[in-house]
Amino acid sequence: MRSGISPDYQGCQFTNEVEKQFNNSGDFICRAIENADGVPYQLVFGPAIGEGYYLNVGFGIKQLFGITPGEFTEELYLMMIEEIIPSNEDIPRNPVELREKIINGKIQNYKAEILVMTPSGEKKWIKDSFIPVIDDKTGKATGLQGIFFDISEHKQTLLQLERAIEKATESDRLKSAFLNNLPHEIRTPLNAIVGFSTLLNEPGHDIEDQLEFRDIITHSSDHLLEIVDDVLEISKIEAKIVRILRKEVNLSLMLKRIYDRVRPAADEKKILLRYDARMDEKEIIINTDSYKLFQSLTNLLSNAVKFTLKGKVEFGFSIKEGMIEFYVSDTGIGIGLEHQPNIFKPFYQSESSSTKRYEGTGLGLSIAKAYIELLGGDIWFNSEPGEGSIFCFNIPDTRQES
Ligand code: ADP
To answer: N or C: which end of the chain has fewer CB within 10 A?
Structure first.
């Protein structure tokens, strides 16, 4: 008694009745391939590439390319091909070269991933694998038999995975660069605080010097606090433990408070800071998280002042289609095109640490974006290098009907 595959299989010598049912193996294999979502085919070569014809094409061709087996021609297939990624380097990408090698028996089996555009304009990734059919007399290939598989979904998943890895690596790199630089970021203001406090306590400094030392100490303490606050805040955002606390907020009052807060820095740089108070005729009270709105606007305004050397910084808001839209514009250095896709990433700064001219942690925009999205809004910007930038964001209009 035998079990499994008959040892007589070589050369298809079927010996018993049951095995004889397997004799029509071509048909059986085609059905098995179709059942596995493959599309079997046979190609008989013509006098030139593109002039051959297909035989026994599986019905799955309809699902794969949107055409019937009868409509599938070699010429059409060659026209559909947009990109070929062969499984090994010995396989030529050029179809003419490939055919030459196949005919001359230099390719025993072929596997490639192929991007095609179907006749209806749909792009698909397929896997094409075939073996040549060799004429015993001449030893040359007269055609192929192979299988197409739709691998579009698999390719899509791979692409998403690659993007996710790229993103994770990029954010990891930014974080490490920041952490490497953190001691320097902290030490600079800390040294200023310690150094100038010591000087303050030494005799012999006139009142003007003492006032200047105090200013430096205040500025350095504020900056140190900002770094620590930003780092703590971004860790909470990344851990997704930031909560929204809504309450009634008088928008005009808040914007005036922000104006007062940013004004000294603008004055110091002789930049005009303008608050567009057109909307202030009527008191506007909204229901939102006051701290997060205040912080987002302050971050945008601080950046605008920081990255502007001359000219003006302007901000305001308007009400549009159920949303309150804020803007902060400046006539500053602008943002290079190469940096624009990255500026909302945590720790990203367009300047490298070695050539840094502007203070900052690279966290202000990512914190603002996270807050605005938590508030139910969106943030975007437009920037022209050397001309200036405008940052806009919106949050839901939660005014009470009066
Ligand atoms: P930073 O602490 O460096 O200001 P941000 O997250 O606030 O960090 O901003 C990220 C980067 O985006 C900045 O380093 C700067 O290169 C760029 N940027 C942000 N706002 C502006 C602006 N108004 N003008 C020019 N560049 C800006």
So the answer is: N
